[in-house]
Amino acid sequence: MPGMVRSSPRPARPAGPPGDGELPEGEAKATAVRAMFDAIAPRYDLVNRIMTFRMDVGWRRRAVSSLALRRGSLVADLACGTGDLCRELAAAGLVPVGIDLSYGMLAAARTSAPLVQGDALRLPVRAGAIDGVTCGFALRNLVDLTPFLAELARVLRPGGRIALLEVATPPNRLLRAGHGLYFGKVVPLIGGLLSDQAAYRYLPRSVAYLPEPDRLVGMVADAGFADVERRLLSVGIAQLVTGTRRP
Prior knowledge:
The protein is α/β, with parallel strands linked by helices. 41% of the residues lie in helices and 20% in strands. Strands 3-2-1-4-5-7-6 form a seven-stranded mixed sheet, sandwiched between helices.
């Protein structure tokens, strides 16, 4: 899914996506992830629809609905990718602006919303200027979650809302086993046939970057958010984390 990662001036690209090697950290992760999303941008939407059986469309609508913001509210969609969430936000009467680090993703975007190339850990937004923030399937692609959550708290007005979508692991043992087989074997096969196999081998491996559920909820609360909730979607293969910016 589209990622936004910390970066300095645009570095040279590595030879390819993270693939099967050791999972990168720090600036090496930033460079590798950005190059990966630049590479898969042209067929990103097609692969997403196929590998999720279009369930990703419903997940995004659920995220937008969970914001519970008034029409006309300004919402920043971070790691906006090709603009799926921006389109859903606009359809709900909200005013989206998309921000992503990947030049390739922004070039392939299909939205009329304003788009900005920017770093999720250093957002080009003044404090308290935003009513809501969405982020779809990018938490595991960030260099560090703590400064990211701090940035969300900084740019949101008191009472502003967040809706963060991410992959998850089903709690049911049998479903977890089936999902692991699909995610680890079938998804890379689909990605290899339609796009970049190394990128889609990285996708299931990148789940290792995510904190445990209770830890993730605690991190969001510690960053300045109240009423933090984590909801499992589609029997637990995706998760939605929401919260309200405390005064």
